[in-house]
């Protein structure tokens, strides 16, 4: 039976190849365009084009000066990433074309250099996002611990797909690679906070709390403390004997 199936598949493949050779045509398939595909290029919109103004607020300009002061005068360009991050935070979680231009102007580099950095690092959002940026890790450790169920819980609860924003602009949902909390998988990142050891139920409860502007518990969503094992602390049970450098340690 298996041999017959394999033979049939081979014949079909050869038939398709013969058709390609005879007609000079072949069909192409492409996957759906996700949000990550859009971040590497600029598309003019009404609120993000070459004429959309951007400037740092007076308060943030003080932060700009503080950041730049950490680097030697000849290496102001080293402040690129922290300044792009500051611009993104001021802009509501995403960075516009003119915001990148402003950062490039401040540190004395060509605008293209800022575009390249903002396009390379996934921490920078090139298009508008919701108030709560939900990043679901689906890399291997999280996948083995049920990240697919977590992602589906988010899609079902928010009624959006990956790469979309809710109609009230409260949530944007994306799928990301490793966020570095594998021992607490499955986990997600919402804005600057990590939520770990999730289940579909705790995921939905978390989203409900955020919707209602209620305080949330950051970190493990179960009994675990930080990254302790399932049996709790099993080693280093006694108080340290030294050397002690500070009394508060």
TrEMBL record:
Binds 1 [2Fe-2S] cluster. Belongs to the complex I 24 kDa subunit family. Residues 213-249 are annotated as: Disordered. GO terms for biological process: mitochondrial electron transport, NADH to ubiquinone. Its cofactor is [2Fe-2S] cluster. One of its GO terms (molecular function) is metal ion binding. Keywords: 2Fe-2S, Iron, Iron-sulfur, Metal-binding, NAD, Translocase. Pfam families: 2Fe-2S_thioredx. GO terms for cellular component: catalytic complex; membrane protein complex; mitochondrial inner membrane. This is NADH dehydrogenase. It comes from Cavenderia fasciculata (Slime mold). The lineage of its organism: Eukaryota, Amoebozoa, Evosea, Eumycetozoa, Dictyostelia. InterPro entries: NuoE-like (IPR002023), NuoE_dom (IPR042128), NuoE_N (IPR041921), Thioredoxin-like_sf (IPR036249). [2Fe-2S] cluster binds at residues 137, 142, 178, 182. SUPFAM superfamilies: Thioredoxin-like.
């Amino acid at each position: 039976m298996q041999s017959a199936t394999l033979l049939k598949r081979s014949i079909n493949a050869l038939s398709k190849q013969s058709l390609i050779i005879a007609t000079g045509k072949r069909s192409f398939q492409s996957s759906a365009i996700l949000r990550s595909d859009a971040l590497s290029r600029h598309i003019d919109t009404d609120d993000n084009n070459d004429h959309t103004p951007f400037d740092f607020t007076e308060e943030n300009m003080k932060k700009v000066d503080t950041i730049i002061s950490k680097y030697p005068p000849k290496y102001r360009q080293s402040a690129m990433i922290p300044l792009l991050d500051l611009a993104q935070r001021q802009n509501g979680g995403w960075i516009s074309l003119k915001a990148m231009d402003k950062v490039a102007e401040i540190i004395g580099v060509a605008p293209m250099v800022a575009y390249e950095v903002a396009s390379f690092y996934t921490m920078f959002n090139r298009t508008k996002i919701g108030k709560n940026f939900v990043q679901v890790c689906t890399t291997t450790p999280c996948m083995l611990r049920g990240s697919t169920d977590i992602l589906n819980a988010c899609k079902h609860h928010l009624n959006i797909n990956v790469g979309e924003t809710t109609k009230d602009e409260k949530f944007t949902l994306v799928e990301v690679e490793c966020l570095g909390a594998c021992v607490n998988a499955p986990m997600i990142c919402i804005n600057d906070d990590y939520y770990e050891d999730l289940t579909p139920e705790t995921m939905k409860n978390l989203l409900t709390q955020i919707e209602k502007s209620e305080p949330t518990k950051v970190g493990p969503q179960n009994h675990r403390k930080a990254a302790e094992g399932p049996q709790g602390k099993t080693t280093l049970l006694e108080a340290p004997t030294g050397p002690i450098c500070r009394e508060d340690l």
